[in-house]
Structure to design on (420 residues):
């Protein structure tokens, strides 16, 4: 009991000492604005009066007489431009300036003065080079100041990027076309030159395509609601039709269109290729042409099913560890004018007894017939490895046609199958 009373007395003494220390150190702290009581004697008015005694009213202030944005209108790729912004100090203290961050294509080229007395102004020169594949350009640069109300000024440069000649679309893509069908291409050419031009005879960079191609070039009016090309001075519509006859496989060529200014000697089709180039006579407009010529008979590709160069497809089962039958599904596509005269069926399969396949009735989908193909791998008495180094080592499913104009198609099966 005595021990408890002693501890209680000691605790009381300690609390009293701590209170006195805290009161003497912090209890009567006088704030920056003077003594503050809780009866409302300190107001916003006398607080600001106290603040004015400590702080000066003389501060710098930024003014931008011409603003901080500049629209340069129209420029061509790789063209260089510059603009001068003005910065003025309308405050009562010196204004300091420092170049800050800028985008990679826009720089602060010149800062005449880094310190401005009240009433003084300086010029800030911005320089840029148009390097973009987009139709618009926008870059910025920053100027830092000691104006407490505007510590950073961001200058904005914007405009429209227009080539001398603009193509819509820039790349002619026809995706997949059956080998028995024609290819139709259409291109609009917009000229932004000050002088009138005329287009020469288009051509492809492939002699094989030129032998099968017919071209048509006609001037066209620029529509009033076409704001994107409102500044164009001329427009042309170019059509190309390529008759059937190209080999199956990917197509990656160029369509070349020579042009010259009206009144100058016409440019031959043998003119050197030069995209958006400049010469004394004419240049050539070049449009990329991409796509793929597929057989009248093809398949819908997937992560496991891929087409191969030279025709045909490979389905990759990979290494199978289960000794149960493995079933997969794919789709056979029949395109072209012969599709209604053609009946497909499953022909040779290999290895027999292991590979089996079934082709279901077609579903008509627009300009093509879609066949569902189901094929199965069934384990045998021995392990079978068809993961060989070339296609001849793989399993096989053959899709046959009763139409001589529609050749058969081979589906190779790549797999390793354990014994049952």
């Amino acid at each position: 009991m005595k021990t408890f009373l002693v501890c209680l007395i000691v605790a009381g003494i300690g609390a009293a000492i701590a209170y006195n220390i805290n009161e003497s150190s912090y209890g009567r702290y006088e704030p920056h604005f003077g003594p503050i009581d809780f009866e409302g004697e300190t107001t916003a008015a006398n607080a600001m009066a106290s603040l004015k005694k400590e702080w000066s009213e003389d501060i710098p202030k930024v003014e931008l007489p011409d603003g901080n944005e500049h629209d340069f209108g129209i420029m061509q790729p790789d063209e260089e431009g510059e603009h001068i912004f003005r910065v003025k100090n309308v405050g009562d203290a010196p204004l300091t300036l420092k170049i800050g961050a800028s985008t990679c294509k826009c720089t602060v080229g010149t800062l005449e003065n880094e310190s401005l007395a009240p009433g003084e102004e300086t010029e800030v020169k911005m320089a840029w080079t148009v390097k973009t594949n987009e139709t618009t350009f926008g870059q910025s640069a920053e100027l830092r100041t000691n104006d407490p109300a505007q510590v950073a000024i961001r200058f904005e440069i914007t405009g429209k990027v227009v080539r001398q000649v603009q193509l819509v679309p820039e790349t002619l893509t026809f995706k997949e076309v059956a080998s028995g069908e024609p290819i139709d291409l259409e291109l609009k050419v917009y000229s932004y030159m000050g002088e009138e031009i005329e287009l020469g005879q288009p051509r492809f960079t492939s002699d094989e395509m030129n032998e099968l191609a017919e071209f048509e070039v006609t001037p066209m009016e620029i529509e009033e609601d076409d704001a994107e090309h409102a500044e164009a001075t001329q427009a042309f519509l170019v059509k190309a039709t390529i008759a059937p006859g190209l080999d199956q496989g990917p197509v990656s060529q160029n369509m070349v269109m020579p042009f010259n200014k009206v009144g100058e000697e016409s440019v031959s089709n043998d003119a050197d290729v030069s995209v958006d180039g400049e010469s004394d006579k004419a240049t050539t407009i070049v449009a990329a042409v991409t796509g793929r010529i597929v057989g009248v008979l093809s398949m819908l590709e997937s992560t496991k099913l891929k087409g191969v160069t030279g025709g045909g497809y490979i389905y990759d089962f990979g290494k199978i560890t289960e000794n149960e039958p493995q079933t997969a599904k794919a789709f056979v596509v029949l395109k072209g004018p012969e599709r209604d005269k053609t009946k497909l069926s499953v022909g040779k399969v290999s290895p027999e007894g292991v590979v089996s396949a079934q082709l279901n009735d077609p579903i008509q989908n627009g300009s093509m017939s879609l066949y569902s193909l189901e094929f199965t791998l069934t384990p045998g008495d021995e392990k079978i490895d068809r993961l060989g180094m070339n296609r001849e080592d793989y399993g096989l499913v053959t899709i046959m046609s009763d139409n001589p104009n529609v050749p058969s198609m081979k589906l190779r099966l790549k797999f390793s199958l354990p014994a049952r």
The chain has three domains: 62-161, 165-270+280-294, 297-417. The first strand starts at residue 62 and ends at 63. The first helix runs from residue 2 to 27.
